[in-house]
From TrEMBL:
Organism of provenance: Sphingomonas tagetis
Record's protein name: 3-hydroxybutyrate dehydrogenase
UniProt GO molecular function: 3-hydroxybutyrate dehydrogenase activity
Pfam families: adh_short_C2
Family matches, as InterPro entries: 3-OHbutyrate_DH, NAD(P)-bd_dom_sf, Sc_DH/Rdtase_CS, SDR, SDR_fam
UniProt-listed Enzyme Commission number(s): 1.1.1.30
Gene3D superfamilies linked: NAD(P)-binding Rossmann-like Domain
Homology family: Belongs to the short-chain dehydrogenases/reductases (SDR) family.
GO biological process, one term: monocarboxylic acid metabolic process
Signal sequence region: none
């Protein structure tokens, strides 16, 4: 319970990696604000479970991460109702798979807005609170695609490389203020984001579903295993510890050896 008294916003936490991070932060006592889309009843059940786990208030905010005004309003709400924010996890993300000549412009705009620009706005809104508190932890969910490319993912690869550069820049701007800024770069994690890209990958590469699973997704990782959301969450919690206060501007690969290969 080393995060008792701290507040955290985890964007894109109604599912997958973000939900695992929200649970792991709540298990350490943090007041968590969750965000993202989904079934209202399921989201309320997750919110109540976070409150029970942390013994602290948990809130849901449905801010659309492609809308800057909604992002600033969410951070203001966290400050007013939970304090802080002391921790932000910029995790909301979407994917679109298509050859560049067929890539819809609105999909490029959406992937860049949700995966990259939202992290910039979140940090812009939260850093003043963290500097005032002389403590803060910013964790950005990047991807193995912050380091290496795959065909047909131009917007996603550009956004994730951007997240890695943004992480380093804001780490330098906050380094003397007790604030650390790091990113985690998972390999493939079995979540709706990965499952939903299978049909487009089949189309773009002319592969069967089985070939996408074995020759694209699992083959990327020398371990031949998906990364688990709970593994990403455990690293996010470690980065919030005092023992991690010298770690800033880092990009942690958690990709079963993908980028080593
Ligand atoms: P997911 O689809 O399970 O979760 C995505 C979350 O983002 C959901 O809560 C969804 O509601 C939310 N979201 C989507 N659009 C949003 C918007 N406009 N505003 C607010 N919330 C929005 O996917 P995931 O795999 O858990 O992805 C989480 C993060 O991890 C993403 O940034 C993704 O790029 C990254 N990532 C995923 C993998 C993987 O293999 N799954 C690998 C590396 C990095």
């Amino acid at each position: 319970m080393f995060l008792k008294g701290k507040s955290a916003i985890v964007t894109g936490s109604t599912s997958g990696i973000g939900l695992a991070i929200a649970k792991a932060l709540a298990a350490e006592g943090a007041s968590v604000m969750i965000n993202g889309f989904g079934d209202a009843g399921a989201i309320e059940a997750e919110r109540a479970a976070l409150e029970a786990a942390s013994g602290a208030k948990a809130l849901y905010d449905g801010a659309d991460m492609s809308k800057p005004d909604a992002i600033y309003a969410m951070v203001d709400r966290c400050h007013a109702e939970l304090g802080g924010p002391d921790i932000i996890v910029n995790n909301a993300g979407i994917q679109h798979v298509s050859a560049i000549e067929d890539f819809p412009v609105e999909k490029w705009d959406a992937v860049i807005a949700i995966n990259l620009s939202s992290a910039w706005h979140m940090m812009r809104a939260a850093v003043p609170h963290m500097k005032a508190a002389k403590w803060g932890r910013i964790i950005n969910t990047a991807s193995a695609h912050s380091l290496v490319a795959s065909p047909n993912k131009s917007a996603y690869v550009a956004a994730k490389h951007g997240v890695a550069g943004l992480t380093k820049t804001i780490a330098l701007e906050t380094a003397t203020h007790g604030v650390t800024v790091n990113c985690i770069s998972p390999g493939y994690v079995w979540t709706p984001l990965v499952e939903n890209q299978i049909p487009d990958t089949m189309k773009a590469r002319g592969l069967t579903r089985e070939q996408v699973m074995n020759d694209v997704l699992l083959a990327a990782q020398p371990t031949k295993k998906f990364v688990l959301p709970e593994q990403v969450a455990a690293l996010a919690v470690f980065l919030c510890r005092e023992e991690a206060s010298a770690i800033t501007g880092a990009n942690y690969s958690m990709d079963g050896g993908w980028t080593a290969a």
